[in-house]
Amino acid sequence: MIVLKIQGGLGNQLFQYAAGRAISIANNVELVLDLSWFDNQIRINTKRSYELDAYKISCRVAQGDELFWCRIHQNRMLSRLSFLHGKWKHIKDKNQVFDNRCFSNSSDLYLDGYWQSYRYFNQVSDLLREELTPRVHSSLTDSALIEIIADPNSVSVHIRRGDYVTNPRAANFHGLCSAEYYEMAMSCIENVISSPHYFVFSDDIEWAKENIRFKSKVTFVESEEARNSVEDLKLMSMCKHNIIANSSFSWWGACLNRNPGKLVIAPKKWFVNQPADSLIPSSWVVL
Question: What is the pLDDT of residue 85?
């Protein structure tokens, strides 16, 4: 059995599921999700909800006696005491670096971390694209937007600010992509694609309007009460090309893009003080 701790926003949850699913397939065991993190969130962080149930995922949620052991593994102090691990070996993802221990150990595992490396699930990427097809139906507004996004020159631009600005801990860990980065990325796009149509997704649309110079056609995808993050991610993935932020959310918007000729632009500096070598696929352009 693989027990997988789920935490964070939608992009983080997708990384965790993708890695856990691949590891469960490699070990030929069941995948079980521990959702107890959502009941004990730190107040200073952005409030998150479990969102993977919007997808056609292949796993189940921990239940019964399993919940007791999940609480042991969730506790920072108790999780360090190996004699309290029960039948699950606790493996902690450290420093966002690929760790092959998960594939060389066939015993029951408890996976704790963010698992932000495509190397965990590169071998099952086609399967994951099918499983990570959302069940949600598009609203009338989104249906009209989807028709425009079908343009062969559509480019999603994701601008992540939010807690990267308001939360000092997040700001010090991630940093922000500058207006200059987005303008360089658009220049790169325009060297390859004639007359691109940019679709801007952001938690701070006003900042994007005021600070970034768009030389080509642009549509700002305004937030709507009826549309959630799953639907936003779907719209981003339907664009033919992607300019992403240092955000797991926009990373998945590009990853789930099925255009075989897609051009993806990603920031070189993903974290402030550590490399992200195993995060960005070699086919993406890094600036």
Answer: 62
